[in-house]
Amino acid sequence: MIPSLQRAFYAWLGLLMLCMTPMWVRAQAPTDLFFSEYVEGSSNNKALEIYNGTGSAINLATGQYIIQMYFNGGTTANTTINLTGTIAPGGTYVVAPTAANATILAKANQTSGSTFYNGNDAIVLRKGGATGTIIDAIGQVGFDPGTEWGTGLASTADNTLRRKLSSCTGDANATDVFVPSVQWDGYATDTFDGLGAHSTSCGGGTPTLPSVSIVATDANGAEAGTDPIVFTLSRSGGTTAALTVNYSVGGSATNGTDYTPALSGVATIPVGQSSVTLTLTPVDDAVVDANETIILTITADAAYTIGSATATGTIADDEVTPSQRIHDIQGAAHISPLLGQTVNGVPGIVTGLRTNGFYMQDPTPDTDDRTSEGIFVFTSTAPTVVVGTSVLVSGTVAEFRSGGSAGTNNLTVTQIQVPTVTTVSTNNSLPAATVLGNGGRAIPNKFIKNQAGNVETGGLAFDPTVNGIDFYESLEAMLVQINNPLAVSPTTQSGAAAGELWVVADNGANATIKSAWGGVIVSANDFNPERIQLDDTVLNPPSGGFLTPSVNVGAQLSTATGIVNWTAGNYEVLLTSIPTVISNSLTKEVTSVGGTASQLTVSTFNVENLAPSDPSSKFTNLANRIVTNLKAPDILLLEEIQDNNGATNDAVVDANITFGLLLNAITSAGGPAYQYRQINPVDDQDGGQPGGNIRVGFLFNPARVTFVDRSGGTSTAATTVNNVNGVPQLSFSPGRVDPTNPAFANNDGSGPASNSRKPLAGEFLFNGQKVFIIGNHFSSKIPDDILFGVNQPATLYSEAQRRDQATVVRNFIQSILAIDPNANVITLGDLNDFEFSAPVNILKSAPLNALIETLPANERYTYVFEGNSQTIDHILVSNALLSKLDGYDVVHINAEFTNPDSDHDPSVARFTLASSLSITAYATPSQLLTTGTTTLSATVSGGTAPYSYTFVGPGTITPNGNTATVSGIPAGVQTFTVIAGDATGASRQTISTTVSVTVTAIQLQVLHRDVDNYADNNSVQPVLILQNQGSEALPLSALTLRYYLTVENFVPLTNLFTFYAQVGAANVKLRYVPLDAPRQGAFGYVEYGFTPEAGQLGANADSGPIQSYFAKSDYSGLYEPDDYSYNPVRDQLLANPRITAYYNGVLVWGQEPALVTPSRQLRVLTESKNGPSATAITTNLILRNEGNLPVNYADLRIRYYFTDDNQQGLTFYSNFMYEGALQGELVRINPPLANANTYLEIKPTFGGQLMPLSSLGTLWYSIYSPQGARLDQTNDYSYQEWPAEFSPNNRVVVYVGNERVWGQESGAAARRASAEPGSELDVTLLSNPVRGDAVSVQIKGAGGNPLQLQLINAQGKVITQQQIATPQAVEQHTLSLTGQGPGVLLLQVSTPTQSRTLRVLKAE
After folding, report:
1. Judging by DSSP bridges, how do beta strands 570-575 and 532-535 pair with one another?
2. Dihedral angle at the C-alpha atoms of 748, 751, 757, 758, nearest 10 degrees?
3. 599-912 matches 918-1000 in fold
4. Which is one Gene Ontology cellular component term of this protein (predicted)?
5. What is the tens place of the pLDDT at every residue in 167-192?
6. Quick one: average pLDDT of 1119-1128?
7. Going along 536-588, which residue ranges are E strands?
8. What pTM, to 2 d.p., does this model score?
């Protein structure tokens, strides 16, 4: 018994001890890996998460863990992924396709390019390779579920599945039934936030994870002595496995910059250790950055819990805190607020070196754009620091103003002088450059300063956002960057400014007026503050050379970076690197403004101190420009021609050698043999380069222009304007204009008194027209203030003298215009001022017109100064000459180029000054009959071709160039005016002359009587006599007569005979001619013609009687009273103007019938030949043409609508004219219409036309059933039961082509034609012909619509009319014929929808 109790005790004790032992595993702890998450999302967004809950790290490669995927119920794995790496205890391992999205890939431990699963594919996790042990499965191997296993969110398709917390082992049986919801929780498509972490409860126990904490075991470090900071990471629990801990890095210190080593954010506590240390060593930099902190914070992970999460260490800075920063020194002003004060330890990074100092910039700027972060340190000798050095500078704040006593208007440069410089560190990165323009600081593009006054002491607002001068001051000494610089000046090639280049940022996107070639143009209130000067000074260019690219205006450069500075009147950017050239494609212009025989060209060209001492290439180049680019102007004013020994200051003043060299070079270049005119100045009295004696002079081409020489002009003698018989004339030509006037005294300090150029006047002739030209070179702008100076706006000291000079020239021009306001006057030259300036406006008041203002704003420039394109060279002309301007061009060949022949662009104007016109004219023949034709011809010379001609006079004139054919000239002596003009334009000339033609009248009349006693029988029998009442005999063969008539029920009028003619019946020819368009009382005419054998109709003689006979081919009736030419008088011959006579086709007697409105009016009358019920539908039909137009039979279609009463095989028959003359077609209507399901369409098969006032005759046709069945016509649309005889039937429809001209088609509301009397407008004359002064008419069928009655005479005039607003069923009215003689009138009766016209014959 004791042993049993003993065993029980020990068992209980063991159990108790077991319960007291700390456990690292959960109840039912996993023994191997299993799938913990499954993602089957959109597209390639798939992932498998494997969880290690064993408590030990597992090496996947050593254990030969693999994933197998079985597709579509297969039993052989389609994809196998061999796993690598290690899974920590409590850790996860994510496998994903390489094409998954970034969120999944960020959490993936291994990726594969193999094909992944879909929702119906099984997945197996094996240990021990391809034939190893299955330790987990998703799905069922060997079974295809169709789309997915499970339902809803807990399914394998388009969902995320996570293993339940209570699931602690995998599904080792891969072939059993798989129900996801047993072990898995479902989530929506593309849920990825659970990947990378998993936990389990494994039967309800809480997992025991290590607790991780961090502390700063040495929290205080320092730059001085590189005193380190130490952080310690520690864990609780076992140490049998390494533990990876994640943490974040924060604080004000920069990781890897302010301390080393750089932290990765991951630390590992090795196996066997419960902690690890992180030792950080501060970097002793030169930056004044105060004390800085390092903050490490443990981030959550499934492998541990967090105890103490955050620790902080502090780095003590060892730099001295400055007394001031650079922006404090610069301030928001042009003068430093600390001027004269001592500053200590001012920090900065050296950005550029000069020979006497260096630029530095604070790497820690303030937020105020108005205060610069850069400054110049004046060391007086070459600085010892290098770019990138961090320094502390102590010294005195100063404002350096260059120029000494003459530089009072220069801006200052803020600097620290007498400096003490302490190097803190070297090789530092430079502060970021400030971008000027788009994407950075916007550059003002209108105002240099929008307030007037002293920018330093005047109390003006400092506004860098609006004012260019403040903008660049706010950037003084700072590094700046210019993106996409566009050159607005050529690179300066020599002198102190060599290498300087002006640009605008962003390809000029923000320039206000950008020239067509890429420059920027000044305007009255905008001198383009957006211009930026680039300078290579700090790059140490070679002596006498430069490093900046040599480019023309419009060149595009790569990004430019440099330091802002002020020098020599402008802000500039001192380049720290040289930009490269992207494009530089500007080419020299060739003008299109050349001279012609009638067009004068005048040019101005400043040739920039041309002297014989210049290289021959300059003469050659200038000559080529004049000949090729300017197209050899007729007159050329040259400025800055020096004397024969140039700048040698001696007594030489003549310039004949200078002129001669240029003229010879022009000839050698293929140009004309120019001559020149000039007047030598008094030595050293006309300014310019000392000793050079520059002057203005004229070149002219004597082959085209005549210079009017009048001697007497000297350097001091003034030419004047004389009035010679109302014509202005120069007293001296050439002559100087008021050369001793004080306006031409010194103003630029370059010589003694009276040293400004004097105007030169000359008188020229071109094509006989006089032109006065005054050449100028006004005093320069050198004394004016600089644009970017202390005083704003710039004071124009030199302008007063140019105003005086302009006044002298204006007064001289006014003395010319006072004599002849239409004089051709030009003043031109280098005026050294702009088109909007006061001096130029004084000249305009003469009045003159500045031709530069005829160009678009973006083309107005002749000169480029400091990147500003501007006009200082001008051509101004009088009003008379402006009207003759044909072209003006500034020829851009110099100012924008690095290889100019001068610093100015020439300009050229073209004026049309043609010689006077002369004209001769004549007529052929000059004597003719009124029916004849003459030709006027004109010949013009002089002026400018091409010429235009205008012919004015009686008759019909048909012009053709310089000739005109004239017909229809009335009798008598007729005068024609011929007007000729030369080329169109403001200077167009005209001239006229007259030509006389003698025209003899043809005076004929036709006498007529009708020898036929009946007006309505079958013939017309007129007797005619043709009388010549003129003074000239006429050949009868040139005469024709026309007898106008209508032919009712038309049959060709072929029986045309001459019974008797005194001139011989055989010599009279008759023919019938139909009219092209209907006329009053006529559809055609019988034409009488005469053979040559008929002889002549003598003057004041007649032809004798001509008796003729007209009849139709079938001799059917003709109704004469409605014929236009009919005259009912039978017993005497009377003049009949309705029979017209023609001489050579020209009407010489009578009046042709008036045209009438064309009218196509057809009418159908029917008569039913059997009763309402019969074995056939038998109808007689008459088609009448009641209009005035013929109708082609081939275009006619007649439709008769009926119901077939269900009879099959109905047949059409007709015996009209001859069998087959009518074609009939029975057409079934689907769907049926009211009272009609079929229509018979009848078409004539014969040719010809249904003429006006004619009918087709009676058409008989029959529709019958071969079976003899009866047809009920009472329900037929077109059947007309009433009245029994022929009457209008508008239910029979007639088409001409596709136009319906008669009848109403059957429709849904249609009714049968019977019982509709009066539906058609019916008009009856109660007596015709009418004898008396009234005509009576009866009207039916108006249908209650308003009626209008009009009686119209043969001339188309309404002689009387009546209106009936509400007519009765039958209306009867009488219209007055009082005052109307015998003849034909028209009665027109109309409603809004119908119209009828009847002829009324008024008898004697």
Report:
1. parallel
2. 120
3. no
4. membrane
5. 888 999 999 888 898 889 999 999 99
6. 90
7. 556-557, 560-567, 570-575, 581-583
8. 0.55
